[in-house]
Design brief:
single chain; Serine Threonine Protein Phosphatase 5, Tetratricopeptide repeat
């Protein structure tokens, strides 16, 4: 019952005090009283009534009044008064632990101790993810601490709560607009151990279809152990109003210490223009990318990507993209050509603790030799959830069909008698605990499964599953 009453008061006072730039006054003005003969802790001023001075003894004899005054002091943003009332309130044997945590976090935030405030807010949300006012306070603290990506995520989650009143939505949108205008570097990195029992993605049969040819050992599934990693950074430089010069760089790689022939590194650098509002981001990003395989230059490409991310309302977001690139291969000019991609993803943020997405992609690769060209159609869907006790999960499914353009010929010599067609299934599950951080690094447990079924199964059908512990950090 106490927690329920506290939550009710929390919502009521949060929406009263936080929804405007000039915080509304409570019905009774609270202030630190000047010393008297019996030194009061607070003085209450009613309309057309003399002030009422309350001493520490008065408050200790009235727990209900002390709790009400502490709750009002939190949203009156009076750190000295919060500190005094909290010290008294904590002496009560039946105090509300959530209110104590919230008061401690608010006092820390008002005192400039943002790291402590963020830690306490996260602990509260790990226990009760439905505390939307706490989530908003966390987002504000993250905003003040210049943790832009994390602040944006928390504001968007809070905005998706249907119980959020219009004035508070306006406040959140104001913060989101301010975040859009910031131009600090956005950096993220992750790494994890990889054990791959089929690093060359091939079928496990020795025979090559019905051709009479047999695979040598190098064409059989290869095992490799190593490290997978990615690193990304970007920055938006404001050109005036809502226009930005945008820079991004994405690096992905796998390095195998016992099979360097399959080391794989990919890097894309983009520089373009971006237009941003609180609800939409439109980007035109020319790019250059290069891939190294087995320690040698393998392929490069340049092109441009057009993206639009738009929040249809606080709960629905539509992301679309179109991309065109020219591809060139260093050792196999037969694969030179171009690619065209269109993509769309619809996200439903049902509550601050839950979201779903549905997406589709179409990719066309045109090559000099038709057998290497293909059309790929993909469908993606997923579910994200914040559970009790601080646990979060992400579950994603993917299905793709890839149809090639001409009859397959292996190595330019062995005719396989078919036009290659593949069906690809993907499942990814990621679990982590929201309040587990070591030097800002979040450990995440990820299970992934991929199955490819081809009409040329001895060469191209395989399945692979991995369980990885990922270490991830955003700056």
């Amino acid at each position: 019952m106490k927690t329920t009453k506290f939550l009710t008061a929390l919502f009521s006072l949060f929406f009263t005090f936080t929804a405007s730039a000039n915080f509304a006054e409570p019905q009774q003005n609270i202030k630190v009283a000047t010393p008297q003969k019996v030194e009061p802790v607070v003085s209450l001023q009613g309309q057309n009534q003399p002030p009422l001075h309350l001493s520490e003894t008065d408050l200790k004899n009235n727990p209900t009044l002390t709790q009400q005054l502490l709750t009002q002091a939190i949203y009156a943003r009076e750190p000295q008064l919060i500190e005094k009332l909290l010290a008294i309130y904590k002496t009560f044997p039946e105090n509300d632990r959530l209110l104590v945590q919230f008061a401690e976090a608010k006092h820390a935030a008002l005192s400039g101790e943002l790291s402590q405030a963020i830690r306490v807010y996260r602990e509260m949300l790990a226990e009760r993810a439905d505390l939307n006012p706490v989530r908003i306070e966390l987002a504000i603290a993250l905003f003040q601490d210049k943790q832009n990506t994390a602040a944006t995520e928390q504001f968007q989650k809070a905005l998706s709560d249907p119980a959020t009143p219009a004035p508070v939505q306006q406040l959140i949108n104001a913060y989101l607009e301010a975040l859009q205008e910031r131009d600090s570097w956005q950096i993220s990195a992750s790494a994890y151990y990889v054990r791959d029992t089929n690093v060359n993605n091939t079928g496990d049969s020795r025979n090559i279809e019905q051709t009479g040819y047999v695979k040598n050992d190098d064409m059989m599934p290869q095992t490799a152990h190593g490290i997978a990693y990615n690193f990304s950074l970007g920055k938006d430089f404001n050109l005036g109003n809502s226009y930005y010069l945008a820079f991004e760089n994405e690096l992905f790689g796998k390095s195998y210490w016992d099979n360097h022939d399959y080391d794989d590194i990919y890097n894309r650098t983009s520089l373009g223009l971006r237009y941003k509002t609180a609800q939409s981001t439109l980007s035109l990003m020319p790019f250059y990318e290069k891939r190294w395989y087995g320690g040698e230059s393998y392929q490069w490409a340049n092109g441009a990507r057009l993206e639009l991310n738009h929040w249809l309302n606080p709960n629905w977001q539509l992301s679309t993209a179109a991309e065109h690139s020219k591809q060139r291969y260093f050792d196999n000019q037969a694969q030179n050509g171009n690619t065209k991609l269109v993509s769309a993803t619809l996200v439903w943020a049902r509550t601050p603790r839950q979201f779903f997405y549905l997406g589709g992609d179409f990719n066309r690769e045109t090559t000099q030799v038709k057998q290497y060209g293909s059309d790929t159609k993909s469908l993606r869907l997923g579910w994200g959830q914040e559970w009790g006790k601080g646990i979060s999960s992400r579950l994603g499914f993917g299905f793709s069909q890839r149809h090639y353009k001409d009859e397959a010929v292996l190595g330019g010599l062995i005719a396989l008698g078919k036009v290659r067609k593949d069906r690809i299934f993907n499942v990814n599950l990621t679990l982590w605990k929201r309040d587990w951080h070591v030097f800002g690094i979040t450990p995440k447990l990820q299970f992934s499964y991929r199955k490819q079924k081809s009409n040329i199964p001895t060469l191209y059908s395989y399945d692979r599953q991995n369980l990885n512990l990922i270490f991830e950090k955003s700056f």
